[in-house]
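User: quick one, fold this
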Amino acid sequence: MSLKAFFSENPSVALAFSGGVDSSYLLYAGLSNGAKVKAYYMQTAFQPAFELEDARRLAEGLNADLTILRGDVLGAAHVMANPPDRCYHCKRIIFEAIQAQAIEDGFSVIIDGTNASDDSDDRPGMRALAELSVRSPLRESGITKDEVRRLSKDAGLFTWDKPAYACLATRIPTGRAITQDLLQKVEATEDILFALGFSDFRVRVLNDMARLEIPGDQMPRILEQKEQILQRFKPHFTAVLMDLAER
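Assistant:
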């Protein structure tokens, strides 16, 4: 099924919108194909501030209808405890909230930006989507991540080359309780690296230390700015380690 055919069959949809590459293109595609698309952004402790800024900017650029919802994922014990299937429980909370609001707003079809490159075997959150009957038009249309980027570039969307960005909770080792303080440390230190011009990296929590995962071509710059990074990370972590395996 093509996206055009999907939106022809489903002319009124509610989109779980993150401001990332996939959901941004899906919002554009739905509107371009004449569908009524209402975007819902779920703001939680797991999303950094820039994601909401990107979501607003993209929606404004497309003149799209955007609703911002707020959810307390840390209030759920089975999420805060950070078990191996944390993503499943988190997705249930987020999509149940979006679904409830969407139904109240008159939408019966909920869609998300899962694409054909996403491996369902390694994504417990996708089980939650299936249980809630969330549709994934990109995946159903066989559109891969690379194709989403190409199509987004052709459409003039600023998100076309936006690096993939998993939620902040993924920086904390499975089994270690997720706290607001830990999430704030991660966001603050990743903001430092963004401000220094780095991209497509991760700051992982290892005990009280930060472990940096940096693309290989950016590693020399990390060493060049070592002292500045150490100084600015000091209020947040006791030490900074670098993972030498290339991302």
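User: anything notable?
Assistant: Residues 86-104 form the longest helix (19 residues).
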